[in-house]
Amino acid sequence: MITFEWPTEAEFHYTQPVEKYTGEALWKGTVRAAYLTEKGKLRYVVEVHPQGFQMIAVPSQLRAVPEAMLAR
In a 10 Å sphere around its CB, with 0-12 CB exposed, 13-18 middle and 19+ buried, how is residue 44 labelled? Predict the structure, then answer.
């Protein structure tokens, strides 16, 4: 069995609604995972709504949004 600890540095929690608000691709979604790279950098895996695919984002690209915002 694989165990997983949520990084203590993570600002966002599992299933938290977020939006990527910087860069060319802008989207909203739900946090599905957080992890540290081999170099110790924090990353989030976000399931994009409504498409359902997953994207990896750095913390500075994301901000929390209310659940109701995911439908827009």
Answer: buried
